[in-house]
Structure formats: C-alpha cells, structure tokens
Amino acid sequence: MAERAQADLEEYRQLLEVPDTFEEGFNLKLVLGAVFIGFVMMPASIYLSLVAGQGIGPAAQWTTLILFTEIAKRSFASIRKQEVFVLFYMAGGLAASGAAGTGPVGSLIWNQYLRQSPAAEGYGIADKIPTWVVPPADSAALAERTFYHPDWLAPIGLMVLLTILSKMNWLGLGYGLFRLCSDVEKLPFPMAPVGALGTIALVESTGQEQTWRWRVFSVGSMIGLLYGLFYVGIPALS
C-alpha cells in the first residue's frame, strides 16, 4: 500500500515539470485583457451578485482565458504559457475582490441599497449607518444614482484607503509567506498543478496537437455549463 501511494505521488508530481528558465509574460495583449476584465467582467460580476447573491468567482478567470485563446486561434496566432498565467492571475482578482467578487464598487452599491431598503427602515437602523459608509437617505447622490457627488467623498476615500492597505497586507504577508514556504522551506503546493494544468490545456488548444488535458478541460467545462444553466440561468430567465 505504501509503495502504491508513493508511486501515485510521484506520478502526480511529474504532471507538471518545473521550468529551467523564466520569461516575461506581460505585454500589450495583457493590457487589452485587463481592459476587458475591468469593463466587461467586473460589471457582470456585480450584476450577478445582485441577482443571484454571488459573484462570477473563478468563472471570470476561465471565461477570459477561453475568450483570448479562441481569438488567438482564429487570428492564426499563438499565446504563450507566460501570457496565459499572467492573464489568469489578473482575472483572479475578481474572484478575490470584495463581497461575492464584486470589488469595492460593488460594496458601495450594496451599501446604498441597504440605506434605502425596507428591511433597514423596518428595523430602524437605516438612519444609524454612518455617513462615511454611505451618504444619508435624503442625499441627492442617492436620488440621482451617481457617485459624482461630494457626499460620496468620504465613503470612496475610505474604500481607496482600505484597498491600499489590503494590497500592502497581501504583498507584505501573503507573498512573503509564500516565498518562505516555496523557496526556503521547499514545501509542496498540492493543488497548484490542478490550476496550472488547466491553463496549460488552453495554451495547447491553440496549437496543432491537443493532448488529454484539453479533453479533460472540455468535459469539465460542459459539466459546469449544465450546472450553471439550472442553478442561475433558468431562475434568472423565469
């Protein structure tokens, strides 16, 4: 039993080889990807969180990657692994930003709704919410549904400050601890190859030869689409 477990472990470790060299992955393609994420995926995530109570989450990453790889195939161009990984990381910001992946702007929209909601008024807490969280109920900013109003200066300023502090926390603690575990302690990351092989499958789909990774990825994608159809699609349309 121990020999079998060791053999399975070695097979799993060999699924993803550690590269000998590292190449730059940020270029103009990634700038266009960032624009697409900000102007298309983020509003979609906010809308879905308000309709279904949850954001797009990891779906934003894979949707962005699939779109760009399909554009690359139809343009007879190739996309490198380094570019895919950087794009995957940027799109991952949606899955980890704010409540339900809506980002800081989505939280402002939720706060203004809470201020005016019948539930908050019924419990008598609507007028107890501080003005540095959301403008008062009689503010013209809420009546006009705009962020371009002086009453939003304090909430937006607090949002920017918290965003900067969270990024500093991530860079100082999160990334620092990762380098400690990865480079100093040499600890394995068991789930890292799972996500990496998915992105590699998309890269391979742009080439002439498609391996088993693409078949497994396609089957999983169809299962996810069927699940999303029954979980979100049908309730939203009906």
Strand content: under 5%
Largest sheet: none
Principal-axes shape call: globular
| Oligomer status | single chain
- Helix percent reads 55-70%
Continuous helix count? 10
CA radius of gyration is 22 Å
Question: What order do the helices and strands follow?
Answer: HHHHHHHHHH
- Give the structural class: mainly alpha
C-alpha termini separation: 52 Å
Low-confidence segments: none
Mean pLDDT: 78
What is the total tally of β strands? 0
Overview of this protein structure:
The protein contains 10 helices and no strands. With 238 residues, the chain is an all-alpha fold. The longest helix has 32 residues, at 153-184. The relative contact order is 0.10. The mean pLDDT is 78.
A few lines on this structure:
The protein is mainly α and 238 residues long.
Which key phrases capture this entry?
10 helices; single chain; 238 residues; mainly alpha
Strand and helix map with partners:
Layout (H helix, E strand, L loop, with lengths): L1 H12 L14 H25 L6 H16 L6 H15 L7 H14 L1 H5 L17 H5 L8 H32 L7 H14 L6 H26 L1
Helix pairs in contact: 2-4, 3-4, 3-9, 4-9, 9-10
